[in-house]
Write a structure and sequence with these properties.
Blueprint (H helix, E strand, L loop, with lengths): L1 E4 L3 H9 L10 H8 L5 E8 L2 E14 L2 E6 L4 E2 L3 H11 L5 E6 L14 E3 L6 E6 L4 H6 L3 H12 L2 E4 L5 H15 L6 H10 L2 E8 L2 E11 L2 E9 L8 H15 L4 E6 L15 H8 L4 E4 L3 E5 L2 H14 L3
Parallel strand pairs: 4-6, 12-13
Antiparallel strand pairs: 1-2, 2-3, 3-4, 3-5, 6-15, 7-15, 8-13, 8-14, 9-10, 10-11, 11-12
GO biological process, one term: peptidoglycan biosynthetic process
Pfam families: FemAB
Family: Belongs to the FemABX family.
Length: about 325
Amino acid sequence: MECRLVDDKEQWDKFVAGQSRAQFLQSWEWGEFQKEFGRRVWRAGVFDEAEQIGAAQIIEHHLGLGMGYLYCPRGPVGELHLAEMAEFIKKGVINYGHVFFRFEPLSCHPERSEGFIVRVPSIQPTNTLLLDLSKSEEQLLAEMHQKTRYNIRLAEKKELEFSDSKIGFDVFWRLMKETARRDKIKLHTKKYYQLMLQIVSCQILVANYQNKMLAGGIFIGFGDTFTYVHGASANEHRDLMAPYFMHWRAIQFAKQNGYQYYDFGGVNPDDEKDFDFRTSWAGITRFKRGFGGEIFSFAGAYELPFQPKMYKLFQQIKKIRKLI
């Protein structure tokens, strides 16, 4: 078993996109997007002789005070060989300022024997809602909550229009700010979304009414999965049920373009006592789960400290300043 850098985009994406429920956060484009913010990126492949069996896109993040950490979002993918990965990082990646390695394996929980590993709250949602697009549209509708199905039918009777054409980002940005004010959520900078649309293979899908955008979302298609990444909706004409209409049309769009899964993004687990349950997600979870589908639970987030003393100091600072 050997872990080494992969510098060929086609080779990298062929393996990562070939995984079931492919993760765009491990795509080559996402790594290039991260570089625009001054973050260094390493792409490590795990090989059994000539065959690649695992991959981890590792992104450097700075914490201040001369400290930083390495982050593998929604990965490693494929087989998890943490010991080989950790050895590779120690020899070829880390410097004196890297305090720990944070990773989010898809389904395989790391063994405690693989080192001092700490379970931590995930940056990416641990639970996501997936629709199986191999089902017919009739099946998908039948498996939705009755109220969701009713709202879709209601919206279809109105003069709503669905568009996947390139629109001016400024219109969508205004809608995002409107949503953020209403729902008290924090946005990235405008530049962040603009760069994402330029570098990553994503698109804005929208629901319009009388030439006014009422709902929209940024979607990323990668491998077998079409993912809802960011969304927004208007304060007016709430009775037209534009978000329901937009998602149903996006589901149809994904199905027509050959994707296996429609990923709604993060939702709460069923158990309110679960480590990753978030009270603030109650409303959005209820909305998404109305579309049916199944919750897919990832293995969670873990940290492997490289410098135990510095890691302990970091934990103390984080409690005070909430760095992450």
